[in-house]
Design brief:
Order of helices and strands: HHHHEEHHHHHHH
CATH class: Mainly Alpha
CATH architecture: Orthogonal Bundle
Number of helices: 11
Structural class: mainly alpha
Helix content: over 70%
Largest sheet: 2 strands, antiparallel
Distance between the termini: 43 Å
CATH topology: ABC transporter involved in vitamin B12 uptake, BtuC
Length: 295
């Protein structure tokens, strides 16, 4: 097919792989955003900064404590989650009864502060973070070369996204979380500590961003601007999928990553805007998003 269209198959499949990699990051980040908005009604603009923090925590764990990639894949998201819990308790918990705009402005300010701190400490040139030895090299599939680390990123992203969806949609804990957003007083009457549940939900949502940051560190290098370059696209993904729709965020993230990759092959000039064009079309046809529910 690629040769019929005038492209070597390696070019087409290579861009599809790059699109799938980008889609993996879009999916995890938009999943965290959708989770936080769907259960807390907070538009978390600090999500990109928390993704960047995940990458930096992995870098610091390696260079200060000598902790390698695999432990960092657990420790760095936990550290980001703890910072999220502190932010939720100190700031966001005071805003739940106010308009969404207040949460958006607060988290936007936090994003600027976090980015500014890391920029001041480490500059903007980017810091290298090595791939784990077990995932170096790649596989020759005949029609393309598949780097092992990039294949791992896609597999890990699918596993985390599917696991999160199952947790929220198919478990008793998920049922309590969904019920707490609709009727917190009723859930509290069953002996569930709703404020603690909400705090842990925010911590888990930003830990997902931290996990994506660790996955991204060996591919994109560790840079204070890595989150701000991505967050606008991720917000577009969430809007297209439907605000608060968890499966919508995941499917849309992977789908748009692939569409973006194909656009780079067939019409490269549009690759940086295709997601926003799709967002405009979706909002015209279905304002609640592809998987969202109209209120």
């Amino acid at each position: 097919m690629a040769e019929l269209l005038g492209f070597p198959p390696q070019v087409l499949f290579g861009q599809l792989l790059l699109g799938l990699i980008n889609g993996a990051f879009y999916a995890i980040l938009s999943l965290g955003l959708a989770l936080i908005f769907g259960l807390l009604n907070i538009i978390n603009f600090a999500h990109g900064a928390q993704y960047m923090m995940g990458a930096f925590f992995a870098y610091l764990l390696l260079n200060i404590l000598g902790i390698g990639y695999w432990p960092a894949l657990i420790l760095a998201p936990l550290l980001v989650g703890v910072t999220g819990i502190i932010i939720e308790r100190l700031f966001l918990s005071r805003l739940y009864k106010l308009d969404h705009l207040y949460g958006l402005l607060l988290t936007f300010g936090l994003a600027l502060i976090l980015e500014g701190v890391f920029r001041h400490l480490y500059g903007v040139s980017g810091l290298p973070y090595a791939q784990p030895a077990a995932l170096q090299g790649g596989q020759n599939l005949g029609f393309m070369y598949l780097p092992n680390y990039r294949a791992w990123v896609v597999v890990a992203s699918v596993a985390v996204c599917l696991g999160t969806w199952l947790l929220i949609e198919k478990t008793k804990l998920g049922a309590y979380l969904r019920a707490a957003t609709e009727n917190p007083t009723l859930v509290q009457a069953f002996g569930i500590n709703v404020p603690v549940m909400i705090t842990l939900t925010y911590g888990f949502g930003v830990a997902l961003a931290g996990f994506a940051g660790v996955l991204a560190a060996p591919i994109y290098s560790v840079n204070p601007l890595m989150g701000s370059n991505l967050i606008i696209i991720v917000f577009a993904v969430v809007v297209i999928g439907g605000m608060g729709s968890i499966m919508g965020a995941v499917l849309t993230g992977f789908g748009l990553g692939i569409i973006e990759g194909l656009t780079k092959v067939f019409y490269p000039e549009a690759s940086s805007t295709v997601i926003f064009v799709i967002m405009a079309i979706v909002l015209l046809i279905k304002p609640a998003g592809l998987f969202g529910k109209a209120h």
